[in-house]
Amino acid sequence: MTSQQISKVWTVLSLALLYYALNTYLVTQGGTPIFGATLIVSSRIPAAMMGIPICSILLLLSSLIGMDYAQKDRSNWADRIPLVGFERIDTMSREAKFYQGAMLALLSVLPVIALIHFWSVFSEAYAVTTKNPPTVIPSIWSWSALTSLNDPARVCNIFHMQPSAAGAPPTISCEGTNTLLPGLEPSAFVVMTAAAVAATLLFWWRVFRAGPSIGRAESDS
């Protein structure tokens, strides 16, 4: 693929990532999605939970494509960032460097910050079993609560626990739920996030490394 084609693919994936990350962030802050976006779930905590794997996968793909673009023979850091919206710019100019830096921050740095926020929201969530009556799971990392792969627990967007009469179990209310595989699902999300962040850091390193590129020479034919 030519550099222009790689830039277009990177732009499409990165814009999709930014779009989903921003809308999910708005939902986790109590807002509503913009531009008519439809998320998988619209409740605060479940939205953050689903935002982790979706944004991690998109970030991983865009970073791998960015690495491929950045490893070409380019001596200027701004020239190692895929072009968004232009076929060619003078990356030696101050305006072009500002533009390229802004695109990198918007399409690569901001999604990482959003992922950190999603993990913060998800890690504090209450979860309950689906048996009747439901019981509270100590944390989303509790492997002991993984009794099956078919809806063993639910993560709660709104959680209430009302004490009952002596000897009776408390009344638990779990609203705005989403299926959770305790221990297993969060661990899988950690692997996805770690892979995405590692690829992103490598992409940034290839962009800002000193000296000429260590990769193959660019070919736009």
What does this structure look like?
The protein has 221 residues and is an alpha+beta fold. It folds into 2 domains: 3-123 and 185-208, no CATH class; 126-181, no CATH class. Helices cover 49% and strands 10% of the residues. The chain has helices at 3-28, 44-70, 94-123, 184-208, and strands at 126-129, 136-137, 153-156, 158-162, 171-175, 178-180. The chain has a 4-stranded antiparallel beta sheet, with no helix packed on it. It has a two-stranded antiparallel sheet with strand order 4-5. α1 packs antiparallel against α2. The chain is elongated and about 75 Å long. The relative contact order is 0.18.
Quickly describe the structure:
49% of the residues lie in helices and 10% in strands. The chain is α+β, with helices and mostly antiparallel strands and 221 residues long.
Question: What about the largest sheet?
Answer: 4 strands, antiparallel
Structural class: alpha+beta
Low-confidence stretches: 212-221
Computed CA radius of gyration, to the nearest angstrom: 22 Å
Identify the overall geometry: elongated
Measure the end-to-end span.
Answer: 9 Å
How many structural domains are formed by the residues? Answer: 2
Provide the succession of SSEs.
HHHEEEEEEH
- Which strands sit side by side, in order, in the main sheet? 2-1-3-6
The average pLDDT is 86
Beta-strand percent range: 5-15%
Which bin fits the share of residues in helices? 40-55%
Number of strands: 6
